[in-house]
Design goal:
The chain is mainly β and 269 residues long. It is 9% helix and 31% strand. It has two domains: 41-139 and 259-267, Trypsin-like serine proteases (Thrombin, subunit H, Beta Barrel), CATH 2.40.10.10; 153-256, Trypsin-like serine proteases (Thrombin, subunit H). It has a six-stranded antiparallel barrel with strand order 8-9-10-13-12-11.
Length: 269
């Protein structure tokens, strides 16, 4: 019995990220659905202060107790930010949820807001204090450097973004199944063409489910063979034709292209 307990502790320690206490309930609901509470415990809401109120603007992923991964296009130097962790409903002060100020934002040096198609839409936010890990607040895993997901690999996008073009912003965290579209397909002229680069991931494009406004910066969650969830993508952009447009999949920053950058920022080198 002791040996079994020790083994389970070792496994939990080895998988110190990407293994939720409350596993997500995965289904193929068209257009997305409410997530099971706290089943994506690295998901954060990035909020900014406006006229004395805090407003949700983007998603993000807690990858270290004091670092959040998000999209560069979410960050404006003129705004004051905070992150909310451990939350299901944005309008409810839930027990176990925490709010932490952002003390520093680091945007990728090659990000250019006028050249979205060049990629590098990635930023790290340092939190003013480290958050404790609980059953509701856990770390997301980075994928191994250089990992390329195969065509039709099943992933889930999560966030508080609109579920359809011009739709209402949901209060409850949403999840939607998206299938990866490989670069060879996504870069075809009838898809995204040369707009998509190899430092991006395409997912979706079925004309039904997509990431939408307000999901920016949030994770594309994909499960590895060992059951661990990894943050393979950061929501970057979609089609101006609409959110759920056929052959215009959601486009994500490919996290596995930036492991070295992420680690150098986190270690201050």
């Amino acid at each position: 019995m002791i040996r079994a307990l020790l083994l389970s502790t070792l496994v939990a320690g080895a998988l110190s990220c990407g293994v939720p206490t409350y596993p997500p309930q995965l289904s193929r609901v068209v257009g997305g659905e409410d997530a099971r509470p706290n089943s994506w415990p690295w998901q954060v809401s990035l909020q900014y202060s406006s006229s004395g109120q805090w407003r949700h603007t983007c998603g993000g992923s807690l990858i270290q107790q004091n670092w959040v991964l998000t999209a560069a296009h979410c960050i404006s130097s003129s705004r004051t930010y905070r992150v909310v962790v451990g939350r299901q409903s944005l309008s409810t002060a839930e027990s176990g949820s925490l709010t932490v100020a952002v003390s520093k934002s680091v945007i990728h040096e090659k990000w250019n807001s006028n050249q979205l198609a060049q990629g590098n839409d990635i930023a790290l936010l340092k939190l003013a204090s480290s958050v404790p890990l609980t059953d509701k607040i856990q770390l997301g895993c980075l994928p191994p450097a250089g990992t390329i997901l195969p065509n039709n690999y099943v992933c889930y996008v999560t966030g508080w973004g609109r579920l359809q073009t011009n739709g209402a912003l949901p209060d409850i965290l949403q999840q939607g199944e998206l299938l990866v579209v490989d670069y060879a397909t996504c870069s075809q002229p009838s898809w995204w063409g040369s707009t998509v680069k190899t430092n991006m991931i395409c997912a979706g494009g079925d004309g039904v489910t997509s990431s939408c406004n307000g999901d920016s910066g949030g994770p594309l969650n994909c499960q590895a063979d060992n059951g661990q969830w990894q943050v393979h993508g950061i929501v970057s952009f979609g089609s101006s034709l609409g959110c759920n447009y056929y052959r215009k999949p959601s486009v994500f920053t490919r996290v596995s292209n930036y492991n070295d950058w992420i680690n150098s920022v986190r270690t201050g080198q």
